[in-house]
Design brief:
The complex is a heterodimer of chains A (224) and B (83). Chain A is of the alpha/beta class. Chain A has 5 helices and 11 strands. Chain A has a single domain (2-223), classed as Class I glutamine amidotransferase (GATase) domain (Rossmann fold, 3-Layer(aba) Sandwich), CATH 3.40.50. Classes of the chains: A alpha/beta (224), B alpha+beta (83). The A-B interface holds A 56-57, 60-61, 64, 92-93, 98-100, 102-107, 145, 147-149, 181 and B 16-20, 22-23, 66-68, 70, 72-73.
């Protein structure tokens, strides 16, 4: 499978993502957003970074790039799409996924390790885990607070579209383990199809065995 | 064609947490000011040429819906002034 890792002006996790995908045996290539999506792409990652300087709202500008029409068409046809961090913000701004990621409750940029509970293991992104598993991944964001109307969140939860929640090391979901004030501790959600997903934590930064734990490999393994 | 300035005010929907506003409020309180609450909003001023007031409003609404506001978290108001 060839995965396109889309570069916007200001993306900065693009090459890390290619390297991490390579380490799980997935061929990946960097695609500059102005070049459009090439034929034969079988997976898409919207990587982390600070596209367009986070001006207006994080992800708002990149979501309007013409390549996002290609991404939407591919997603509708069943191509797996993963948005990570800034890519998650772009995915929500482009309505690939519900809700919005906005200013952290702390009003600060936060760079730290968090624990995540796997809420639904029956998706391509989480099939390497069991429901209730706790994994540790880094976050690095200033606008990661998941915001959505209460009604809409009820529907998402009823439809099992929450991928991960921030939690304590033992898996308990508490206000204290919520790093950014996300509603119901949501760290990642799926789109209308579970082949489309976004998450604020960085699986690609926990995927190379040479540099430490590899809790994120299971997420990227969706493309394998 | 007439010149208009469209003033777009984008603010968080009622009930959506506004950490920037809270931080600003706390800063004012630390400076000794007394206040009950503080809300913030973004204001855009867009100069356009349009056939009439209504057309100017429609074009501004399209810009706001497409990019300036995110309907998940924002409400917005548009005022059109002739330049």
């Amino acid at each position: 499978m060839t995965v396109a890792v889309i570069q916007f002006g200001g993306s900065n996790c693009d090459r890390d993502t290619v390297q991490a995908l390579d380490s799980v045996g997935v061929e990946a290539e960097l695609i500059w957003h102005e070049d459009g999506l090439p034929a034969g792409i079988e997976g898409i990652v919207l990587p982390g970074g600070f596209s367009y300087g986070d001006f207006l709202r994080a992800g708002a500008m990149a979501a309007q790039s013409p390549i996002m029409d290609d991404v939407r068409s591919a997603a509708d046809a069943g191509t797996p799409v993963l948005g990570i961090c800034n890519g998650a913000q772009i995915g929500c701004e482009a309505s690939l996924t519900p809700g919005a990621f906005t200013t952290n409750e702390s009003d600060r940029f936060q760079c730290e390790h968090v624990h995540l509970r796997v809420e639904n293991a029956d998706t391509p992104w989480t099939r390497a885990y069991e429901e209730g598993d706790v994994i540790q991944l880094p976050i690095a964001h200033g606008e990661g607070r998941f915001e959505i109307s209460d009604d809409r969140l009820d529907t998402l939860e009823a439809d099992d579209r929450i991928l991960f929640r921030y939690c304590e090391p033992d898996g308990t979901v508490t206000p204290e383990s919520n790093p950014n004030g996300s509603k119901h501790n949501v760290a990642g959600v799926t789109g209308e199809r579970d082949s489309v997903a976004v998450m604020m934590p960085h699986p690609e930064r926990m995927s190379l065995p040479d540099i430490g734990p590899t809790d994120g490999r299971g997420v990227l393994g969706a493309f394998a | 064609m007439t010149g208009y300035t469209a003033i777009v005010t984008v603010r968080l929907k009622s009930g959506v947490l506004d950490p920037e506003a809270e931080t600003t409020q706390h800063a004012l309180e630390r400076l000794g000011f007394e206040l009950e609450s503080l809300r913030s909003a973004e204001r855009f001023e867009i100069d356009i040429e349009a056939a009439d007031h209504e057309t100017a409003r429609e074009r501004t609404e399209a810009m706001t819906e497409r990019l300036l506001a995110n309907p998940t978290i924002h409400d917005y108001e548009i005022d059109i002034e002739q330049r």
